Task: structure prediction
Amino acid sequence: MAESQNIEWKESWRDEYLKWICGFANAQGGKIYIGCDDSGKIIGVADSKKLLEDIPNKITQSLGVVADVNLLTEDDKEYIEIIVPAYSTGITYKGVYHYRSGSTKQVLKGPALENFLNGKRGATWDSMPLPAFNMSDVDDAVVDKFKLLASQKGRINPELLDESKEVLLEKLHLKSGEYLTNAAMMLFAKDPEKWQLGAFVKIGYFESDSELVFQDEIRGSLIEMVDKIVEVIYLKYMRAKITYVGMQRQEKYFVPEAALRETLLNALCHSQYNYGVPIQISIYEDKMYIANCGCLPENWTVENLMSKHASKPFNPNIAYAFYLAGFIESWGRGIEKICDACSENGCPPPEFTINPGDIMVKFTASEDQIVRRPGGVTERVTERVTEKVTEKEMQVIELLQEDPGYTYAELAEKLSVSRKTVSERLKKLKDKKVIERIGSATKGYWKLLE
Result:
């Protein structure tokens, strides 16, 4: 039998193995066998009587816990079995918290230790009080948007919609004693980054793993963020496959909106924000990655995730507000919905990767869904516009080929001219029907005309 989550083999006793006992006590419990090699083969111990006296005393004195220590015999060889129960409180060895994960022992520090201790207390990061955050920091416009969404979905008591934001947040369990919680801050703050580093989403377009072409950072409350992210991705980052049914134009992306939205909501609900690392979306011509700091519930694997399962959000208070607003369901069907949306759209199924510190979802385009993005000013464009535009206007076109989402201010900075000058050049290019604006002035992008 190989070593596993709950079993450890040791050839002889060393006091440092108290760390392994601490790790089992902090996790799901387990067994340590003294007198066995790494494959579990019994080689025996020579001092079993002394070990039966010493080991229980050392465990109690060093860890403050009690473990069963048994003498076993096989083929005339004696070996020791130590049975460690799981404890509901955090256990330390010389002031350090150890934790059994898989077949390894880890030392808990920083955010990982905070999450562990909160879990032992039955608390979550998003339910913790944040004394520095108060009602004056709550964005009234976001509260009004939440009320509108919740009323449209019909998942909230209508009388609560007429209450003040103070009453509403208390009824949503977004207060701990007299203080608002981390969840209240993430959901309704005007500027969550004031209290939590990394409380935003990074989006980048890559030509290769090492070559970032352009990027955006989406900021604001979680209630507002989802629509912003979807809008920016589809307007600026992804190119649709255009087809026609009769006279009707149809646009099809290799990541369907239902799958993208559900994946984003999962990331926002489950992200471990206390690590201070933003959710990251990497977009290529033929694939997209969405990654967030996080981990699966204890003892879960990718197989558990892909099969029918109960909903176990890392941030349940944030998830509850999302449920009331109609963003998510409460049945743990998010993964199923993502896969179904991809299947219905004729897309390959998403790939889920669980890394030690993050969870990543990968969407891949099938060959017939890839829309090639020009990598600079193409010869076709150059030939068509050379006679129409000036050298200075061509400089603007080159920048828009680099990033169609550049703002007036960014273009002015890159060209070392005033915003007024940029505005005049863009107007001339529009008048010459070389470019057109897609979307609004603040959320759109520039498109080179065919």
Residues 269 and 319 are 6 Å apart (CA to CA).
